[in-house]
Design a protein that fits this description.
Length: 404
């Protein structure tokens, strides 16, 4: 069974058009005209009505009409609200059943059973599971992306350090893979690969590999993690640097909408094949707040970064303040904008300091449950006391991303 239609909590004033469409949708539901109700609820959301209720009702109408992909998108949106996640996951199980995807349905019901605080909902999920074979749980997460683009001032950047600016434009292709693989108990493994290949400027081609393990730590209201990571990177096929890292992290929910994360990372760095000057140590401390409501994700982050290299001309202290806003426009389209401001002061007085401003814009469109098409633009303006590192840069790319 599906739960009843929901009425929105009017925490803020909705437009007259949104409320009118909402009333039309309610009347259509009463008449069991689910096609008209779906159209009206969609119009209410388009007119600015936010919150999980409107998306829940869209999901119910789409389910009644057998529009499985639309119902899935709507209930996934509802699941972004923590107190409604279990109910949304239960309904995603019903949608999967309607689409004859029994393995997927069993996973959703099992998740709802684990999450549900309401005894009735847990009993419903348990009853559904009793009628289905339980598939093996998939706790791992894998991300992949493939993109191509154009860079009007190719720069070699490692963790925010500009080690060379070409002053030359080039096209490029980029591949990224990353995965998280939980083990039994509190342990998990993670790894990533980044491959960047320029058409003509081979000296800027990069390969990065990262692998490590994390241990979850119970810290009261905080969710803590301690991890060790190993990283290796190359330039133009030759060794660039290797890193051994210790990562400490804690996250906690401040309210239903706000989450806080604090992270510290220590890196022991070995420069390879002519980059001996990069031998050294690095300390990174960051505090990030995430606000999530409806289709909005807003992130504010401060980072402090201190690098002490054998080549003292590269050693620095850096402060960064960054803002990122992401908005789901509808079930398919999402836009994102980011702004970051860095201030770096080098240990060697002759290098002076740098002020870097970075702007990012992205538009993505869902291509299914796992895939998205993404177009990105990035702009950087680095104002440096040392003329060699005073530059501007524009970078645009288009590609596809997938999460499994």
């Amino acid at each position: 069974m599906l739960f009843a239609f929901l009425t929105p909590t009017i925490a803020c004033a909705h437009s007259a058009e949104a409320l009118q469409q909402w009333d039309v949708g309610k009347q259509a539901v009463a008449a069991q005209d689910y096609a008209a109700a779906l159209s009206a609820f969609e119009a209410a959301a388009a007119a600015g009505m936010s919150g999980p209720a409107v998306h829940f009702n869209i999901g119910v109408c789409a389910y009644r009409l057998g529009r499985w992909s639309r119902a899935t998108a709507a209930f996934n949106e509802v699941a972004r609200t923590p107190e409604m996640a279990a109910l949304a996951h239960y309904n995603l199980g019903l949608v999967a059943l309607g689409a004859s995807k029994s393995d997927e349905a069993a996973r959703w019901f099992a998740q709802a059973e684990r999450e549900a605080a309401d005894e009735r909902l847990r009993a419903l999920a348990t009853a559904q599971l009793a009628q289905l074979p339980r598939p093996p749980e998939r706790n791992w997460l894998v991300f992949g992306s493939l993109a191509a683009g154009y860079d009007d001032n190719v720069a070699l950047i490692s963790g925010g350090d500009v080690l060379g600016v070409s002053g030359t434009d080039d096209t490029f292709a980029e591949l990224q893979l990353a995965g998280v693989f939980p083990l039994e108990g509190p342990w998990s493994l993670d790894g990533s690969l980044v491959l960047l290949d320029y058409q003509d400027l081979d000296g800027f081609d990069q390969l990065g590999l990262n692998a490590g393990g994390r241990y979850r730590l119970p810290l009261g209201d905080w969710k803590g993690e301690a991890g060790l990571q190993l990283a290796y990177s190359t330039l133009d096929g030759e060794g660039f640097e290797s890193r051994r890292m210790l990562v400490l992290q804690g996250t906690r929910a401040l309210t239903q909408e706000w989450r806080l994360r604090a992270r510290y990372r220590f890196s022991h760095i070995d420069g390879l094949d002519g980059f001996d000057g990069l031998d050294g140590r690095r300390h990174e401390l960051g505090i990030r707040g995430l606000w999530r409501r409806g289709g909005w994700d807003v992130t504010v982050e401060y980072r402090y970064d201190s690098a002490d290299y054998d080549d003292s001309t590269l050693s620095f202290d850096r402060h960064q303040l960054a803002f990122d806003v992401q908005r789901a426009l509808n079930r398919n389209w999402t836009v994102q904008a980011g702004l970051a401001r860095d201030h770096s002061k080098y240990d060697v007085a002759a290098n002076g300091s740098e002020e870097r401003t970075e702007l990012t814009l992205a538009v993505s469109r869902a291509l299914g449950a796992s895939w998205r098409a993404v177009v990105r633009y990035a702009y950087a303006d680095n104002q440096a006391d040392l003329a060699d590192f005073d530059y501007r840069r524009n970078r645009v790319s288009a590609g596809v991303e997938a999460t499994w």
